[in-house]
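Q: What structure does this chain adopt?
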Amino acid sequence: MNAESDERDGGAVPARPVSAAGDGTKSVTGDAAEGVTKVERELGSRAPGFIKASRTLHLSWQVGVFVVGLAVVVAGVIMLPLPGPGWLVIFGGMAIWATEFVWAQLVLRWTRRKVTEAAQRALDPKVRRRNIALTVIGLVIIAVLVGIYVWKFGITMPWKINE
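A:
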């Protein structure tokens, strides 16, 4: 095999260009008409070379990354019902895992793609009008329910409840 091709199945496939920064990112171009360019890292371990050189050291590195990522993800799950940035911490733990595990890299890519699509949909004027209308209808329903409750039971402060 030479450095410019990957000889699988008997055919040579040209290598994709590596960015000039030399950081291991690969450039993947999108729609040429729009001039969209995405930069995605290649999948796999991002451990330093001296760690990858030794199988035992690399395995212990992976165990360490998994344990640290697991601790961060568990902290994020605990923060979901409690005050704190639960989802942000969970995605931080996934990013830690993604430094070493391909499955986590794929999950983060999928999540990033879905979040970007949702943000683009939310900016659509029709969707924004619908969301505003649904919010107003929901607030009106809540106001009516609160009004009915106050009319029926009155307003009684918790510290003045007669037993």
